[in-house]
TrEMBL record, chain A:
Organism of derivation: Chrysodeixis includens (Soybean looper)
Pfam families reported in the protein's UniProt record: TsaD
GO cellular component, one term: EKC/KEOPS complex
Protein name: N(6)-L-threonylcarbamoyladenine synthase
Record family assignment: Belongs to the KAE1 / TsaD family.
CDD domains in alphabetical order: ASKHA_NBD_OSGEP_like_euk (cd24132)
Residues holding substrate: Y130, V131, S132, G133, G134, D162, G177, E181, N264
Catalytic reaction list: L-threonylcarbamoyladenylate + adenosine(37) in tRNA = N(6)-L-threonylcarbamoyladenosine(37) in tRNA + AMP + H(+)
UniProtKB/TrEMBL annotation, chain B:
GO cellular component, as recorded: cytosol; EKC/KEOPS complex; nucleus
Coiled-coil stretches: none
Classification via SUPFAM superfamilies: PF0523-like
Signal sequence range: none
Organism of provenance: Chrysodeixis includens (Soybean looper)
Keywords, ordered alphabetically: Nucleus, tRNA processing
Protein name: EKC/KEOPS complex subunit CGI121
Any one of the GO BP annotations: tRNA threonylcarbamoyladenosine modification
UniProtKB/TrEMBL annotation, chain C:
Source organism of this protein record: Chrysodeixis includens
Catalytic activity: L-seryl-[protein] + ATP = O-phospho-L-seryl-[protein] + ADP + H(+); L-threonyl-[protein] + ATP = O-phospho-L-threonyl-[protein] + ADP + H(+)
Name this protein carries in UniProt: non-specific serine/threonine protein kinase
Chief location category: nucleus
UniProt keyword annotations, A-Z: ATP-binding, Hydrolase, Kinase, Nucleotide-binding, Nucleus, Phosphoprotein, Serine/threonine-protein kinase, Transferase, tRNA processing
Enzyme class: transferase
UniProt subcellular location: Nucleus
Family to which this protein belongs: Belongs to the protein kinase superfamily. BUD32 family.
Biological processes per GO annotation: tRNA processing; tRNA threonylcarbamoyladenosine metabolic process
Residue stretches making up the Protein kinase domain: 3-236
Assigned GO CC terms: cytosol; EKC/KEOPS complex; nucleus
Gene3D superfamilies: Phosphorylase Kinase, domain 1 (3.30.200.20), Transferase(Phosphotransferase) domain 1 (1.10.510.10)
């Protein structure tokens, strides 16, 4: 029985989560929200995390009802992500490791998402679509690695959505993606946009730059709702298409959607239609688990820890670039 | 890989029929029936009758025809387009000539692939359950009927290559030529090369 | 083969492939069926574009002396392409799976792939979905031979046929070509991860097969595209 605490702060969410043998006993989070039209920058985001980390940690300990001495391993996000915010959690984790005299484990953020998704949905061996502000990847497990079959060749889908939200000056509260999703529900008129699939890879920069440069002109014929609708329909169709290609490639009949964009209901719906047609099942989670959180780090850490993975204190650095397929998966066959 | 085009045989006749039949798209319920003639004497009559629409058939110069299949591909598209009201020319028979040609210029196409004073002619009839115009027209052709198997004797590899602008072809391979020609015909409406 | 009823040969993600007799010949029909998950306008547009791109690139390849199936009918209304059926064939993927890289002809085939890709790119055609499933080996008739030698594969009498040009386009830029190579490298890594030298041989043949043109620029761009993937910060 492993009791793990996880710290996540690779982007604008700060999360602390605690799991005990696959049971989530705390999942606490704060989000750094910027004014409309603005994205989050590393320094300000790190400051936010520094200011909030005490209260989130306390909240998590209270929620779980555990005391620090019961903890087996302290996990933190090693990467990928923004340097300064990652550093905040790493420092907190290191400090606690020394204070509480507990082992430390750095976790790959993407692996956290995948394992969290598998835990919540009970998907067995799914093709994983990992979609967030910084990532767009199609992943499948093969011989001790989560291998990347397809990914964006330029910007992440979440980045494309967030930046378009900024163009429209949509609120960042609770998140730009959520507001695009709501606006899209009201959209009716479909604007054809560049559709760019290359093998199992995708590209979103063409769509974004078209929207950015032509926005004034577009707003003469289309409402912002129409544009959100058209954007979602196009980019999600691309994602579903490459997911299906990967499934066909691997002979898989399960899809798991993880990452912040994964809680978009329209994306889940489209994926569901595709899966139904090929007798496959789609697994997704809601915003509690899709969006960056501490539990995913705690749980991936618990898995690695139970299968014997250890990390020396001297290795407890962070890395902004850390690919999903760099991690050896010791806890699966 | 490429199956030989079937030669129709009928046991009831003494000599095997010299024409060739190819079934077109099942939806059209149409077949093409091809006859090859040489030393045709009444070319002008034939031309006039076809142009005036009295005779329903295409009269094709065999010089640029590599195989009956080439005509089948062109005729198939013509018949489908007729059904869909999407023809470029006025009749399905001129549409066959137009489809055979690599250019989008109608009169040039008809001139190049149709007959003028040519005495060698490949006739193409569209035959359905109800209708076969060949039975009344063929007896009126004053010439020597040849077997479709002899078509290659009438074909000029070099000129066909030239007409279809395939100058990159190095080896003299009829199969490759046919491959290119039918692909060009199939893509003509939306590819400019 | 039943004359009238098409037989389903393969059900892919985007298309169903049938074989049947058509215009008197054994024919492959590739139908790009409707994908219900995407907006109907987008669906129609994508399918039209892919059929057009596929047909256009197949023709272009022929002009570049790259073997592709002959096209018999391109039917936008039915969302179908009718093309030549290559009865005797093996995909490069299956060839490698069956015979491995120790096979004496493996290197020759890998080289042919590299040379063919170079020809594609020199003619500004980008395939867009380069995988070993989209490359077929067919028997090459030997000079003077009337029939296919049943031992064609063992003897290495092969010809490479490129198929599945739905994601292709013509008038490709250097970037497109670089991405094309990147897509292939990724596909090889995921399909043939145990044969690491495969891509290296292909790439080498790609570079040396035409000393005239400028492959270096494409290779440089390919390396940039690859580096972009590895260096992407991936925030969030």
């Amino acid at each position: 029985m492993v009791l793990a605490i996880g710290f996540e702060g690779s982007a604008n969410k700060l999360g602390v989560g605690i799991v005990r043998d696959g049971q989530i006993i705390a999942n606490c989070r704060r989000t750094y929200i910027t004014p409309p039209g603005q994205g989050f920058l590393p320094r300000e985001t790190a400051e936010h995390h520094q200011q909030k980390v005490h209260e989130v940690l306390k909240e998590a300990l209270d929620q779980s009802g555990i005391t620090p001495d019961q903890i087996d391993v302290i996990c933190y996000t090693k990467g990928p992500g923004m340097g300064a915010p990652l550093m905040v959690c790493a420092i907190v984790a290191r400090t606690l490791s020394l204070m509480w005299k507990k082992p430390l484990l750095g976790i790959n953020h993407c692996i956290g998402h995948i394992e969290m998704g598998r835990l919540i949905t009970n998907a067995y061996n799914p093709t994983v679509l990992y979609v967030s502000g910084g990532n767009t990847q199609i992943i499948a497990y093969d011989r001790r690695r989560y291998r990347i079959f397809g990914e964006t060749i330029d910007i992440a889908v979440g980045n494309c959505l967030d930046r378009f939200a900024r163009v429209l000056k949509l609120s960042n509260e609770p998140s730009p993606g959520y507001n695009i999703e709501q606006a899209a529900k009201r959209g009716k008129k479909y604007l054809p946009l560049p559709y760019c699939v290359k093998g199992m890879d995708v590209s979103f920069s063409g769509i974004l730059s078209l929207m950015e440069t032509k926005i004034d002109e577009l707003l003469k014929t289309y409402t912002p709702d129409d544009l959100c609708y058209s954007l979602q329909e196009t980019v999600f169709a691309m994602l579903v298409e490459i997911t299906e290609r990967a499934m066909a490639h691997c002979g898989s009949d399960e899809v798991l959607i993880v990452g912040g964009v994964g809680c978009n209901v329209r994306l889940q719906e489209m994926m569901g239609v595709m899966c139904k047609e090929r007798d496959a099942r789609v697994f997704a989670t809601d915003e509690r688990f899709c969006i960056d959180n501490g539990v995913m780090i705690a749980w991936a850490g618990a898995l690695a820890y139970s299968s014997g993975t250890r990390m020396d204190f001297s290795e407890s650095y962070i890395t902004q670039r850390y690919r999903t397929d760099d991690v050896e998966v010791t806890w699966r066959d | 890989m490429v199956s030989p085009t079937p030669q129709v045989s009928s046991s009831s006749e003494v000599s095997p029929p010299k024409y060739q039949i190819v079934e077109l798209d099942p939806d059209t319920k149409t077949k093409i029936k091809l006859y090859l003639f040489k030393n045709v004497q009444n070319v002008e009559t034939i031309r006039d009758n076809i142009i005036q629409g009295v005779w329903e058939c295409s009269a094709i110069k065999p010089r640029y025809i590599v195989d009956a299949f080439q005509v089948a591909v062109a005729a198939n598209k013509a018949v489908l387009d007729e059904k869909r009201d999407a023809m470029v020319t006025r009749s399905v028979y001129s549409e066959i000539l137009y489809n055979l040609s690599p250019t989008k210029n109608i009169s040039q196409s008809l001139m190049k692939f149709g007959i003028s004073k040519d005495t060698n002619i490949l006739f193409c009839f569209l035959v359905t359950e109800e209708r076969d115009t060949s039975t009344e027209i063929i007896p009126k052709i004053e010439g020597e009927m040849c077997s479709m198997k002899e078509l290659f004797n009438f074909t000029s590899f070099e000129e066909t290559k030239h007409v279809y602008k395939l100058n990159h072809m190095k080896e003299k391979c009829m199969e490759r030529l046919l491959d290119l020609v039918v692909t060009k015909i199939a893509t003509k409406s939306f590819v400019t090369h | 083969m039943d004359e009238s009823e098409p037989q389903l040969l393969k059900q892919g993600a985007e298309a169903r492939v049938y074989i049947c007799k058509y215009l008197g010949r054994d024919t492959v029909i590739k139908e790009r069926f409707q994908k219900k998950y995407r907006h109907p306008d987008l669906d129609v547009e994508i399918v039209k574009e892919r059929i057009r791109n596929e047909a256009r690139s197949i023709l272009r390849c022929k002009f570049a002396n790259i073997r592709t199936p002959a096209l018999y009918l391109v039917d936008f209304e039915r969302r179908k392409i009718y093309m030549e059926y290559l009865a005797t064939n093996i995909t490069v993927k299956d060839f490698i799976a069956k015979h491995g890289t120790a096979n004496e002809h493996f290197e020759k085939i890998a080289k042919t792939i590299g040379e063919t890709l170079r020809k594609l790119h020199d003619n500004n055609i980008v395939h867009g979905d380069l995988t070993t499933s989209n490359m077929l080996l067919i028997p090459k008739l030997q000079a003077g031979a009337e029939q296919i030698d049943p031992a064609w594969l063992a003897k290495g009498h092969v010809e490479l046929v490129m198929i599945d040009f739905g994601l292709s386009y013509t008038d490709a830029s250097i970037e497109d070509k670089g991405v094309d190579l990147y897509v292939l490298e990724r596909a090889l890594l995921s399909t043939h991860s145990n044969y690491e030298d495969l891509f290296a041989i292909i790439l080498k043949a790609y570079v040396v097969s035409n000393p005239k043109g400028n492959a270096n620029e494409t290779i440089k761009r390919f390396e940039e595209v690859r580096a972009r993937g590895r260096k992407r910060t991936m925030v969030g």
